[in-house]
Write a structure and sequence with these properties.
The structure is a single chain. With 560 residues, this protein is of the alpha/beta class. It is built from 21 helices and 16 strands. Helix 3 runs antiparallel to helix 4, helix 4 packs antiparallel against helix 5 and helix 7 runs parallel beside helix 10.
């Protein structure tokens, strides 16, 4: 095999876009590595969308020098980072980009140094680094790259040693983190980084990893994310360079128009000349395309050469943008009027129409939908859009903490994060601690102080068999989670039994108020049954019931 002694801008582009594709292909695999057997594991989706944003910025960068492409990738990952795993991935590439600034090509030594820079930056970004996570994987991988670069100038060999060390480090994560060992999984963020390195090795060695199922939810999420990035309220419709969002799905080597055998590079390169925001994902039977272009007809015609069209979808993004701009103007006017009455606004993330309304009623200025973790850019736009002099972010999910912290550094006004881990904590902080006329620091302290006085519980359905701290859990069991720990498991999806058992564990002699939020899979009768049981345990308790409308969790509980 010919020795490759440098990475050019061409190889770098292939590495980044291969990584985005590989993460998309494996998003569900990564999601299923969630320590808890709950149905909302989203590490794979978050890393996929974060990397997709990095790849999008890389493809759109006009300066094609390697250093500039790395910087663009880093910026895209920063703005698109979702969840803690996505933020850490963005920090790895931030350190990488800083190391290669101004370089036209990367030698084996340069590449190893860049990985070391990525590891150092990622560790610095985490207040209390935990071993047995993605941090361990990048540290071990970078160290291996450094050792290999002392022995060879072949960047493929260095990448091979990097990947090998990353895979070994991933395999060791359960030995370093007891929670992983107990349930028999490796770290999900570390798995995502290994997939990135597998794609890097494939791009450099020519052994590119083939794509998987093109119809999975991960690809749809990527497409939606890229489309949303092209249609947003602050852009003049006439400033959109490529106005038609075009999607096609082609059954390869089928139909009467088929006259070209499918070759990924040939297929991709032609489409790359027609626009931007290009995604091409394929398996042996189907290829799916998303592209923003001025010539959707050419995209469609190109597809017909390789097979029969199964799906065609074309949206006029300029029309959509005009509608989005009008909607954004109205929303800004309403929020500005609301914010004008106060110096201090609040941005929060909530899931469920009822929960979102409760936050609005409590005085929150802007509520972001939490069914998909918001990106750093989403949070920045929300904060800047409040029109207030100072802003507080309530994440209501520890997985959003790091993206919120990044947003604080990028906003136009003084902003702080109150580290609410649940929606119940967020509502309590708003009701008991928020003062719209208060100063930022004092209000943050007051809201943070209310969190310690509340217990948060949730009921959902297990999606796999496992054993956590001696509690045997089966696929389909109803499980009760108290402040981040599974404490109840009831068979046969018995939500009511799990909710009652969970409530009993939440109560103590100081308990005064129980609030019940029933979700899409719950109802008021279920809430009433929980109230009756609670009253039988303590007839002095007060109860409130709200229709939260949240998915996946039929019951949320708070006890104060």
């Amino acid at each position: 095999m010919e020795v490759l002694t440098e990475i050019t801008n061409v190889e770098f582009g292939k590495m980044i876009n291969s990584a985005a594709s590989a993460l998309q292909d494996n998003a569900e695999k990564i999601n299923k590595l969630n320590v808890f057997p709950v149905p909302d594991g989203d590490t794979g989706t978050n890393m996929t969308l974060s990397m997709a944003s990095g790849a999008e910025y890389e493809r759109a960068e006009d300066d094609t020098s390697l250093g500039s492409l790395a910087k663009a990738t880093s910026k895209g990952l920063l703005m698109g980072a979702r969840g803690n795993s996505g933020v850490i991935l963005s920090q790895i590439f931030r350190g990488f980009a800083n190391s290669v600034d101004g370089k036209q090509t990367l030698s084996a030594r340069d590449f190893a140094d860049a990985l070391m820079g990525g590891a150092e930056t990622a560790y610095k970004a985490v207040m209390k680094p935990t071993e047995g996570t993605i941090l361990t994987v990048i540290r071990e991988a970078a160290a291996a790259a450094n050792r290999a670069a002392k022995q060879t100038e072949d960047v493929v060999e260095v990448m091979h040693e990097t990947l090998d060390a990353a895979e070994k480090a991933l395999a060791k994560t359960p030995d370093l983190l007891p929670a992983l060992k107990e349930v028999g999984v490796v770290d999900s963020g570390g798995q995502g980084l290994v997939i990135v390195f597998q794609a890097f090795y494939g791009a450099l060695s020519g052994e590119e990893i083939t794509s998987g199922n093109v119809d999975n939810a991960g690809l749809e999420a990527m497409i939606q994310s890229m489309h949303n990035a092209g249609v947003q309220g602050d852009l003049d419709p006439q400033d959109i360079k490529y106005g038609y969002c075009t999607e096609i799905m082609v059954d390869i080597a089928q139909g009467t128009t088929y006259d070209k055998d499918f070759d990924y590079d040939t297929f991709y390169n032609y489409l790359a000349g027609l626009g931007d925001s290009l995604l091409v994902i394929n398996d042996d039977e189907v290829v799916k395309v998303h592209v923003h272009t001025e010539n959707p007809g050419a995209v469609i015609e190109w597809g017909t050469h390789f097979g029969s069209l199964r799906k065609v979808k074309v949206d006029n993004m300029r029309n959509q943008q005009a509608e989005a701009a009008e909607k954004a103007d109205k929303q800004r006017e309403a929020e500005a009027e609301q914010a004008a009455a106060k110096d201090l606004a609040v941005v929060t993330i909530a899931t469920g129409s009822g929960m979102q309304k409760l936050f609005k009623d409590a005085g929150v200025t802007t509520v972001l939908d939490g069914e998909q973790a918001p990106s750093t850019a989403d949070l920045v736009a929300a904060v800047n859009g409040t029109g207030a002099k100072q802003v507080i972010i309530l994440p209501n999910d520890s997985n959003i903490f790091m993206a919120a912290d990044q947003a604080v550094d990028l906003t136009d006004m003084p902003t702080a994060v109150v580290r609410t881990k649940t929606q119940q904590q967020g509502l309590t902080a708003m009701v008991l601690g928020y003062n719209p006329e208060g100063q930022l620091d004092q209000t943050v302290d007051a809201m943070s102080g209310t969190i310690s006085d509340i217990k948060s519980g949730s009921v959902t359905t297990s999606v796999r068999d496992t054993n956590i701290k001696g509690l045997e859990i089966h696929d389909g069991d109803s499980i009760g989670i108290l402040d981040g720990e599974i404490v109840v498991a009831k068979p046969n999806a018995d939500i009511e039994a799990a909710a009652k058992a969970l409530l009993e564990k939440m109560l103590d002699d100081d308990s005064e108020l129980v609030t019940i939020y029933f979700g899409l899979e719950g109802n008021s009768d279920l809430a009433d049954a929980i109230v009756s049981y609670g009253e039988s345990l303590d007839d002095e308790l007060e109860f409130e019931i709200h229709d939260g409308g949240q998915p996946l969790y039929p019951i949320l509980l708070s006890v104060e």
